[in-house]
Amino acid sequence: MEITVRLLGALDVTSGGRHLKIPTGKLSIALTSLALYHGRTLPVLDLAEYLWGTELPTAPRATIRSYIKRLRQILDPAQGSGRDGTSLIEGGRGGYALSGTRVAVDATEFRARLGHASELRAAGDTHGESRTLDSALELWRGPLLANVDAPELMMGAVPLLEEERRRALHRRVALSLDGLCGGDPGAYVPRLRQALACDPLQEHFWEQLILALQRCGRSAEALREYERCRRLLSEELGIAPAAGLRQLHQTLLADGADQHAAERGDGDVSPWPTGTGERAALLRSLLAGRRKHVSPHELPAGFQRMLTGHPRATAAGPGPLAPAAPPSKGRREARYTSRRVRTRRYRTSRSADRGPGRA
């Protein structure tokens, strides 16, 4: 009867559908370490580092032997081993290894499926690759080793698995978004959001999430996600989104403006929205990340065309610079800024009239 050790989520050990209880603490860390090195010998010194870090006990080798003995007492009877001198945990003084033939580990299976997906990709079989990537990603049940408190292990072998998962998810979503394997791009929105919840600074996942939402016709959500990404990168790293993300943002804005014009039936009219609420929303998006007060020459290209749709615009020129908005604190601030600009211009003009020598 085969023992199955599952690491891609909470640590779980089963034998013939029956759960085996592994005590929390050092025994769980020891079994997890052996499972991550499934089929290979884990040196005693490396196992000691995963168990204790730099604060080793007085007799680490003896303590490790006691842990291995207790794990064998749990695993071997469930599999029917141990009576003939064989054990599921092989090795001795130099290191220990979890049997690669009599124990199944989901992390090992995950990597095997990724290898098969790479072979299919090299052969040009994108449909087979996508199916294999799906089957690999389905092995994950949640955050890696969610119920194991092992700081040293989390900084060592665990990040490699997490990176492999990120690459697999990125490749699978890319296949869907590129239309190479069919499927609904929206099906991967929950997975992308889950990945970003665990690692919110992964810009390529933000880009794929926004693109997937756009492909599903959820442009408003896509714009909100871009703003979340922009704000996060600015606050956490002090940087702007990458060029690809910024270009995608501009595409979303342009698509929204074109759709608005098409719905109005204005074939030759500027695509910039003319409704007051729409102008205010577009202005906030266009000026995202800029200073609170900007000069006219700093406005995005084409913005003057939007201003010409202001209700107070005349043949002599566009309406006021402040964006129209419903009565609110933002509108009051815009009016106050407008008055400050006019007052400053008036004072500058008066000073010029008086000349440099007049008080």
TrEMBL record:
<dbReference type="InterPro" id="IPR005158">
    <property type="entry name" value="BTAD"/>
</dbReference>
<dbReference type="InterPro" id="IPR036388">
    <property type="entry name" value="WH-like_DNA-bd_sf"/>
</dbReference>
<feature type="compositionally biased region" description="Basic and acidic residues">
    <location>
        <begin position="350"/>
        <end position="359"/>
    </location>
</feature>
<keyword id="KW-0238">DNA-binding</keyword>
<keyword id="KW-0804">Transcription</keyword>
<keyword id="KW-0902">Two-component regulatory system</keyword>
<feature type="domain" description="OmpR/PhoB-type">
    <location>
        <begin position="1"/>
        <end position="100"/>
    </location>
</feature>
<dbReference type="GO" id="GO:0003677">
    <property type="term" value="F:DNA binding"/>
</dbReference>
<feature type="compositionally biased region" description="Basic residues">
    <location>
        <begin position="337"/>
        <end position="348"/>
    </location>
</feature>
<feature type="DNA-binding region" description="OmpR/PhoB-type">
    <location>
        <begin position="1"/>
        <end position="100"/>
    </location>
</feature>
<dbReference type="InterPro" id="IPR001867">
    <property type="entry name" value="OmpR/PhoB-type_DNA-bd"/>
</dbReference>
<dbReference type="GO" id="GO:0006355">
    <property type="term" value="P:regulation of DNA-templated transcription"/>
</dbReference>
<dbReference type="Pfam" id="PF03704">
    <property type="entry name" value="BTAD"/>
</dbReference>
<comment type="similarity">
    <text>Belongs to the AfsR/DnrI/RedD regulatory family.</text>
</comment>
<feature type="region of interest" description="Disordered">
    <location>
        <begin position="309"/>
        <end position="359"/>
    </location>
</feature>
<protein>
    <submittedName>
        <fullName>AfsR/SARP family transcriptional regulator</fullName>
    </submittedName>
</protein>
<dbReference type="InterPro" id="IPR051677">
    <property type="entry name" value="AfsR-DnrI-RedD_regulator"/>
</dbReference>
<dbReference type="GO" id="GO:0000160">
    <property type="term" value="P:phosphorelay signal transduction system"/>
</dbReference>
<dbReference type="InterPro" id="IPR016032">
    <property type="entry name" value="Sig_transdc_resp-reg_C-effctor"/>
</dbReference>
<dbReference type="InterPro" id="IPR011990">
    <property type="entry name" value="TPR-like_helical_dom_sf"/>
</dbReference>
<keyword id="KW-0805">Transcription regulation</keyword>
